[in-house]
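User: structure tokens for this one?
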Amino acid sequence: MKIDLSDTTASKINKALVQGRRDIGTPAVGMVLTMVIVTDEENAYDSIKAAEEASHEHPSRTLVVIKRHARTPRDRTNSHLDAEVRVGADAGTGETVVLRTYGEVSDHADSVVLPLLLPDAPVVVWWPGDAPEIPAKDPLGALAQRRITDLYAATNPIEALNARAHSYAPGDTDLAWTRLTPWRSMLAAALDQAKSKITSGAVESEADNPAAELLARWLEARLKVKIDRVVTEGPVITAVRLGTGAGEVVIDRPEGPLATLSLPGQPSRTLALKVRTTSELIAEELRRLDADEMYAIALRAEGTKETPSHV
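Assistant:
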């Protein structure tokens, strides 16, 4: 069910949510958090779809904030708010409100969002595209326990990563880090089996890949060895190589959803290591809302100052 509201207010939106639930016979129970998505029209559809898919695991109220540029005389002279309220089958397992702000309302989107937050429930803010320089100090980010950005959307991902390290606050995280969960799990399991001291290492990936840089920094912080950055044709991360006195520990994924794990003195084996969808990444992030200390450690690690080598 969809309800369109033009030149509206937060109070009218709340009433529309209540009326929509009554019309479809669904009470406002079971929703565990409020997800705020700050995006533009170009990325809105994919972001909403990802949030709705994630809501099957984490039922939530999703508030989508789209700051519109003035295109008509009405837009230029009147600050106003348009909204689209979705409940039932049109909103996954929760509720979705698409908020389009015009004029001065765009500068005070937090005042529109605040009355629409679920009472006594955590708030998560996600910027699928451009993110503020300091997410924790952004008016919308300040409302949240969890702030999700994506370095893949940055024009210069490595420069943005370094800036994010200086602005980090507990509750910040990034989908570039979330993409590494399968890699980190497999590397930890492989090192448990290798039981040898790591003396060197390398992360191979396409150029300027922020996830690869975070992985290299995490390995350096945990293993206390220098990790080389090696540029390949990709896509994304293609291999991690860790040197030991007995030989190399290697996870190699040149392409596709399968990787090969090689350990010294053991036969190679095939592992599932697919590139996950955005909805899967968001669902993982919503499973924990406390500070991610490992992300902070990887983010703030110095990293190498040398130019990456090529293969």
